[in-house]
Every structure is written in C-alpha cells, then in structure tokens.
Design goal:
10 helices
C-alpha cells in the first residue's frame, strides 16, 4: 500500500525541519569553536608581548603546570575508578539477576544524577578536612567517584552486547562462569570498555565545580580551574582566558581522537562476530 500524498508531504516537512535544525546547531557550534580558536591563538601570540618577560614566563609555567596536573588528575581518577567499574559492570551482566544486583544497578543509575558539587563537598569534608589529604589526591578521588556510576552501567551494557551464543558454546565445552568471563566476554569487550573509560575521563577534564570545591581556586590547578580563574579577572584583557580555553579544547579533542580510534577497532571486531 503506497502512502498518501499528505503523508509523504508530512514526512518531507519533518525531514526538512530536522535537517535545518541540525544544520543550524552545527553552524552555531562551528562558529563558537572557530571564535575560540581564533581568539585563543591570538592570546597565545600576544601574551608574551603584552606582559613583562617575568610575568609572561610565570604565566606560561602556570599553564604548563595546569596541563600536567590535568593529565595526572585524569590518569589517577581513571586508575581508581576503572577496576571497580569493570568488576561491578561484569558482575551486573554475568551474575544472577537477584535483588542485590538490582539494587546495585538502581544505586548506580541514581548516583549518575548527583551534582558534582555535592560529590566535591563530601570528598573535601571526608578526605581533606578530616584526613588531611592533599587537594590533588582529593580531586582525583572526587573525579573517580563522579565518573564511577556511568562507567559501571556502560560496562554492563557492553558486556550484555556479547552474543549469548558465544557463552553457550563455552558452557557446552565445560567452561566455568569465570572462564567464560575471562576468555569470552572480556576479550570481546576490552577495546569498547577502554573507549568508554576514555570517554568518561573526557567528561572529567571539563569538570570545574567538583575540582573547585576540593582544590580551591589555586592558579596551578588543572586546566578547568585555570580557565575559571582567568575568566574572573575582569580587570585584565580576556586573552589569557581564551588561551587557556584553547589549550583545554585541544587536550579534549586529542582524547576524542583516541576514542574514535578505539571505536573503529570495536566496529571491526563486531563485524568479525
């Protein structure tokens, strides 16, 4: 049965509207990023000429220190959260669907909606104020706690995507549940899980609220804190804020390229299935 002309007209109108909105949103984002790139490069070029040599060198050192602290924070947070996320995610996907696991899954979904400021306040009170932990370590713990629920649920969904026929074949050959997990599920999802973890860490790079609570407004904090600090210098030209934001955007785009590379490997592996 062929669709009526009014139905075809409605489908065409909806498709045209969606295409137009998508193009407009893409154009807005492209204009914003283009503006940031132009002003960021302008700031990187003019800062050494606008500031005295000593001040320019101090700001350059602060920017390099912030980039280094960002790498350290993201790496430590990933090392803290990844083992727990993978273990709990595999437990949710391969374990018996009892009341305990359903409760863990519900808690993980609810924890995704907790504001990052609350996580920062809790970590700051528990580790910095009470235990005297360094702000850098507290920031890494706060980032790990904030990203952990999403990592758990993503790991579970990726593990469930492994075809059940592979599990059944392994069980038919006498493999135990642990052997199936380590020999079938983990190799089939390893690259996808790494890509998901890197994607979650990308979100952590841009989290300023949780780091401001745990680390304060230190000028030598991570890039997110530096961008926030420089944007509040209303008595100074915004060139330093633009330059800091450009460095942060380049860092995030580099991590996105890693994710795209990993996802291409995942798609190749799924095609082999």
């Amino acid at each position: 049965m062929r669709p009526s002309s009014s139905r075809r007209w409605l489908d065409t109108a909806i498709f045209t509207a969606v295409t137009g909105v998508t193009f407009a949103v893409t154009l807005v984002f492209a204009a914003f990023f283009g503006w940031l790139v132009v002003h960021g490069f302008y700031g990187l070029r003019t800062i050494p000429r606008e500031l005295p040599p000593e001040s320019a060198w101090r700001w350059t050192s602060m920017l390099a220190g912030s980039a280094k602290n960002t790498v350290v924070l993201v790496t430590v947070a990933g090392l803290i959260a990844s083992p727990f996320a993978v273990a709990v995610g595999f437990l949710l996907s391969e374990g018996r669907d009892d009341r305990f696991l359903r409760g863990v899954r519900a808690c993980a979904r609810a924890a995704q909606g907790v504001p990052s400021v609350i996580v920062g306040v809790g970590v700051s009170a528990a580790f910095v104020t009470s235990c005297g932990l360094s702000p850098m370590a507290a920031g890494a713990i706060a980032l790990a706690l904030m990203l952990l629920p999403g990592m758990i649920l993503t790991t579970e969904s990726l593990a469930r995507a492994v075809p059940n026929d592979l599990r059944s074949a392994a069980f038919a050959l006498g493999a135990s549940r642990l052997s199936v997990l380590l020999g079938v599920v983990l190799p089939g999802t390893r690259t996808a899980i790494i890509a998901a973890i890197v994607s979650a860490l990308i979100r952590g790079v841009g989290e300023a609220a949780v780091l401001l609570v745990t680390m304060g407004t230190a000028k030598e904090g991570p890039l997110a804190v530096l961008v926030y600090h420089e944007s509040l210098q209303f008595d100074l030209p915004p060139t330093r804020a633009h330059a800091s934001a450009l460095i942060m955007m380049v860092f995030i785009l580099s991590m996105h390229l890693v994710v795209l590379r990993l996802r291409s490997g995942v798609q190749l592996g799924m095609a082999r299935w």
